[in-house]
Amino acid sequence: MELRVAHLYPNMMNIYADRGNIIALERHCAWRGISFSVTGFGLDDDISWRDYDFFYLGGGQDRDQRLVSEDLRAKGSGLAEAVEEGAVVLSVCGGYQLLGEYYVTGAGDRMEGVGLFRAHTVAGSDRCIGNVVVRSDIGCLDLTLAGFENHAGRTFLAPGQQPLGKVVSGFGNNAVDGTEGIVYLNAIGTYLHGPLLPKNPGLAEYLLLQALRHRYGDGVGPLSPIDLSLEEEAHGVAVRVAGGG
Ligand code: GLN
């Protein structure tokens, strides 16, 4: 088996060590003998969307977000179609904002998103910065997620949309309604940097399994057990540091 990752705009959307998420996926595969490939795609690159099982889009500054928002929309509906077919998307912070309906910056500039998520973002006058802990029931699991957030944008989900989880400590989507992130099929948007997957091995395992099922069918799994004791310990520390338990 092979996990094929498309890393979208790795040179522009990569603040807060987002590459750590890719490294975590690579390690979880290597430890159980699953082949792994990652291909970076930048502005104007054509993507053969069906060739990938896991799309990653990290955080970025407003200036880069504008360029990426225009390029993503020019790339058409391939990402949305891949999601309907079960591909995994992990989008973090600035990337999450651009997969929603629109993002209005602090300067009042409006960027159109691709509308994969029924959510919109408007920048507030101050930033939401700090460690964050979230309780998530994604995939019928009961996961505590730890991360770090740093965003001016306040994201509001449309009625009926499923958040990634509930905020235990920190700000989350908008510092008001207690939600964090969004889930649509196997696509996730979140403000949790960290990087997220090294700090939350349970989420990494879940997303890896969904991505493999996208390529090889629902008969795949459960994943063979691997020793994640060190990762679990790091996770516990991150949760405690963030005041989540
Ligand atoms: N510019 C966006 C905000 O501040 C996203 C920043 C980020 O990706 N960290 O809301």
3D architecture notes:
By secondary structure, this protein is an alpha/beta fold. The protein has a single domain, classed as Class I glutamine amidotransferase (GATase) domain (Rossmann fold, 3-Layer(aba) Sandwich), CATH 3.40.50. It is built from 7 helices and 12 strands. A 6-stranded mixed beta sheet has the order 2-1-3-4-12-11. α1 packs across α6. The longest helix is centred in the C-terminal third of the chain and has 16 residues. It is globular and about 50 Å long. The termini are far apart. The mean pLDDT is 96. Bound molecules: glutamine (GLN). Glutamine binds next to α2 and β8.
Radius of gyration, in Å, reads 17 Å
Order of helices and strands: EHEEHHEHEEEEEEEEHHH
What general form does the structure show? globular
Listed once per kind, the bound small molecules are: glutamine
SS strand fraction: 25-35%
